[in-house]
Write a structure and sequence with these properties.
CATH class: Alpha Beta
Order of helices and strands: EHEHEHHEHEEEEEEEEEH
Number of helices: 6
Number of domains: 1
Distance between the termini: 25 Å
Radius of gyration: 16 Å
Length: about 220
């Protein structure tokens, strides 16, 4: 019997192998019968039980890369929005869920979560942009363990995750912000809605806490 597959979308952006290795490690350690597949084929999304969209670089160029794959945006819409398969966006992959991005011009996003991707402007001018390195995750209230999002069930305030970004997801509605980080002011670090969730940091580079988040995503049943 064929294994269920987790598809990590290859659209020319991001360190795909690093992400795939982190997912494969969780599957091995937890004996999960899942096939981790890196793919640029929209047809593979139809067979997937979960979908991951990584991303590095500028919003517009990442959106262009996604658009350049014939049928990929349509496959994402069909499988993530219509069929409600669990979806994880990582870094720019998270930002692409916004209505639009304002990096090097105005670029339409997937428009799954209302909001804009805007430049970071820390109140402390000594803080460097891009925001690069380890920073704490802040879970907004209600913070009781049984009330938080399932993908954050292992996360705790004060845990550190690895960030690399110059722009941030400015959500139109606060209830879509599931976690924040403080870098000269609070900025969204985790956003979500229904069966979709996105993280600004790189869980695959965030050691054990990042691996726990990946594990929770693989167990999530929205």
């Amino acid at each position: 019997m064929a294994k269920d597959s987790v598809v990590i979308i290859d659209y020319g952006s991001g360190n795909l192998r690093s992400a795939a290795k982190a997912f494969e490690r969780i599957c091995t350690e937890e004996k999960l019968s899942l096939d981790i597949k890196i793919s640029a084929n929209p047809a593979d999304l139809k067979k997937a039980c979960r979908i991951v969209l990584p991303g590095q670089g500028a919003f517009g160029s990442c959106m262009d890369g996604l658009s350049a794959i014939k049928g990929m945006q349509e496959a994402l819409q069909e499988n993530v929005i219509k069929k409600a398969k669990p979806f994880l966006g990582i870094c720019v992959g998270m930002q692409l869920m916004a209505t639009r991005g304002l990096e090097h011009g105005i670029h339409a996003g997937l428009n799954w979560i209302p909001g804009e991707v805007v430049p970071m402007q820390p109140a402390d001018k000594d803080l460097k942009i891009p925001h690069m390195g380890w920073n704490e995750l802040v879970i907004p209230s209600p913070s009781a363990q049984d009330n938080r999002h399932f993908v954050l069930r292992s996360a705790e305030n004060g845990k550190h995750y690895y960030f690399v970004h110059s722009f941030m997801f400015q959500c139109e509605y606060d209830h879509h912000i599931l976690g924040m980080t403080d870098y000269g002011g609070l900025i969204p670090a985790v956003v979500g809605k229904d069966n979709i969730v996105g993280v600004q940091f790189h869980p695959e580079k965030s050691q054990q806490d990042g691996l726990r988040l990946i594990s929770d995503f693989l167990h999530w049943k929205p």
